[in-house]
Amino acid sequence: MTRSTGASRLRAQSLTLGYGDREVVSEVDLEVPDGKVTVVVGPNACGKSTLLKGLARLARPQRGAVLLDGEEIHRRPTKEVAKVLGLLPQNPVAPEGVVVADLVGRGRHPHQGLFTRWSAEDRAAVEEAMVLTDTFELADRAVDELSGGQRQRVWIAMALAQGTDLLLLDEPTTYLDVAHQVEMLDLLVELNARRGTTVVMVLHDLNLSARYADHLVAVRAGRIVAEGTPAEVVTEDVVRSVFGLDNRVIQDPVSHTPLVVPVGRHQPRPSGPRPTAPSAPSAPSSQENR
């Protein structure tokens, strides 16, 4: 598997993370490719979200370190980090009664000083983020009145309004239907292409991950099992090893990226009309009984 080379802005060195005595991420070395879309995949409870928290400075290493621009991220001031690194956690909680425009506007806090007034630049960043996420018409609505999908788009708008060079998202497609999942991932890829934003995402859907990632990281039991391009990582052997899933890998006819087809214990029924059971012989007529 290929590994990124050079001095990446964000990297983990022998990173070990956990909760109390329980080790969740073990001795991980990872260089996040600058200006690319990186997606972290793996089975439930494998350490994906914990790894993202470590990269985002929310989880303190038990051993090893996370480096941002060559410095240990935990040694840098919080506001300084927030100017260059944005995070959308898995289950964010909005203050009670806050309206959409105000929540999205909170993404601008790292760029404001104690006595700095709300600027035209701040206003433009918030409006652009809301337009991109199709939440502009929700500006005056209370966040707690929105559907799950609408709330998720508002949180993503807040992350975009922060205007950082590095954007980390934990399950950004949560609560979104399939159409909005694709729209949101298209938006993040376009953001990466237009602004050069480095994007790191945790996703559950392996096929969407393979379609949208430049760099794919497969995690199992707190360790990186494979990383590289989707074509290098999404193989039948790796999918079987990481997910314990018998599978076939074919080419996606639309994106030409790897497409995983699960092989289940019960094969699907053939398409088409079901065969008709033979009818029971009819009873003899009264004439035949004579």
TrEMBL record:
CDD domains: ABC_Iron-Siderophores_B12_Hemin
SUPFAM superfamilies, per database record: P-loop containing nucleoside triphosphate hydrolases
Domain ABC transporter: 10-246
Domain of life: Bacteria
Keywords, alphabetical: ATP-binding, Cell membrane, Ion transport, Iron, Iron transport, Membrane, Nucleotide-binding, Transport
GO molecular function annotations of the record: ATP binding
Name the UniProt record assigns to this protein: ABC transporter ATP-binding protein
